[in-house]
Amino acid sequence: MSEQNTTKKLQVLLPHWIEHNNNHIAEFRKWEIEARTEPGQEVALLLEKAISDMEDAGKSLSEALEKIGGPLEGGEWQHHHH
């Protein structure tokens, strides 16, 4: 794959990965709050760490997207479905 093709693919994939990561963070946060009462503080702390790790991953993904010039014009990535 040429460098230009790789860049274009990443300009499509990275925004999707960032959005997907943010959705996971929101879900983890919801369950972290639930875990404070049951099953307990230890689980809540581990979920907090997972949230922090995912936030760090999101920052790295955003930096990578910035380095390649941002998302592909037209927001084509938004039409991708699992």
Provide the fold topology.
Blueprint: H1 3-35, H2 41-67
Helix pairs in contact: 1-2
Characterization of the model:
There is one protein chain. With 82 residues, this protein is mainly alpha-helical. The chain is built from two helices and no strands. It has helices spanning 3-35, 41-67. Helix 1 (3-35) runs antiparallel to helix 2 (41-67). The chain is elongated and about 50 Å long. Mean pLDDT is 89; it is low at 76-82.
Summarize the model shown.
With 82 residues, this protein is mostly helical.
Features:
single chain, 82 residues, mainly alpha, disordered C terminus
CA-based shape = elongated
Radius of gyration: 16 Å
Secondary structural class = mainly alpha
- H-E order: HH
Number of strands: 0
The stretches of 5 or more residues where confidence is low (pLDDT under 50) are: 76-82
The percent range for strand residues is under 5%
